[in-house]
Amino acid sequence: MSFLENIREALRSISGNLLRTILTALIVSIGLMALVGILTAIDAMRSSIGDTFASLGANAFEIKAKGYSNRFRRGGVQGKQYPALSYLQASLYKKELSRREPSAVVGLSAFISGATEIKANGQKTNPNMQVVAGDENYLRIQSYTLTQGRTFSPAELQTGANVAIIGQEMKDKLFPSQSPVGQYIYSLGRRFQVVGLLEKSGSTMGGSGADRLLLVPLETGNQLPRQGALTYDVKTATTTASALAFLQSQATGVMRAVRHDRLGQEDSFDIESPDSLTGELDSLTGKVQVGGGLVAFITLLGASIALMNIMLVSVTERTREIGIRKALGATSRQVRLQFLIEAIVICVMGGSLGILLGIGMGNGVAVLAGSKSFLVPWLWVGVGLTICVTVGLLAGSYPAGKAAALDPIESLRYE
């Protein structure tokens, strides 16, 4: 029999035992759905997180006070918490680094409020708007683009004028049928004139990007009412990727001097770059992938046992048929190949369904997490199909060997 004839014979046998074949194929489907679904969701969310990292800039890094925003632990021991970056320290760092490296772009910003209500024209937004104070480099560092209006002028930045740049969600709520530029809004007890409108960014991993952002000059942010001292974010970028490592070393020296870190003392700050964040993400997702692979392995092990049982039953039920085939000249190798192909066909049918369900499930989970991308993980599709064939070979080897070893005379006598 040719290879295609063996496949046709396998399909004929499968149609004769349709119910138990479907049940076995479903077990294989569940295993591969778990594997491909988990890996697809991870890849899709990683892609979305990568887009978030890109807002920082591929050639940029951020400096934060060590242990201030997250009190990390090492070996179960709480790490030392250093004071937050002050406005004076951030300004000195920007001035000194810009002097040493004219190609460096340093942006300073401060988070003012994350649950703010904006009012205008008798309307008000939901109380979930974010107010941030930034300098002249903030939009460039964050890769935000203006669709209307302008950025802050040097005079507005220096004097702390009551001007603002707003996000698209505020515009849609407060100025749905007119341009917001030149209009006035009210927030945090002050009246601001809108001078610019940010481009719509959409949702990224549950966030809202620039859509809910109210940006004011940095000096204005220092004057706004608040309960505690402001925490300043310092972000540095360069136009050339090759200079990033050198710029980080320069930034470390400047910040140590600004923070008065003594010789031999550890840095009182952390430098976070897309590479370091990606490394942490890779470590976390690697563990999740191992867990997903373990779940899929256990499920596929059960599927292979069920498939082997079905094939053994099939060999018993078709003993007389095997005897007739051998009497007509079929060799043991041909009989073995026929049963192996039948096992592989069952696995590939179930596996194909599992892969399709896994891709849908994985992308569905990623969409619920805020991802916008739809991914087809061709690598995992290939791995899944390879696993299907492997499971079919392993589960079908023993039944196929048993069928090939049957004596044709005894098989013809079987009732």
Automatic annotation (TrEMBL):
Residue stretches making up the MacB-like periplasmic core domain: 21-238
UniProt subcellular location: Cell membrane
Domain of life: Bacteria
Positions of the ABC3 transporter permease C-terminal domain: 294-407
Pfam families linked to this entry: FtsX, MacB_PCD
GO cellular component, one term: plasma membrane
Transmembrane segment boundaries: 21-42, 294-316, 337-362, 374-395
InterPro entries in the record: ABC3_permease_C, MacB_PCD, Macrolide_Exporter_MacB
Keywords: Cell membrane, Membrane, Transmembrane, Transmembrane helix
Membrane topology: Multi-pass membrane protein
GO molecular function, one term: transmembrane transporter activity
Family note: Belongs to the ABC-4 integral membrane protein family.
Annotated protein name in UniProt: FtsX-like permease family protein
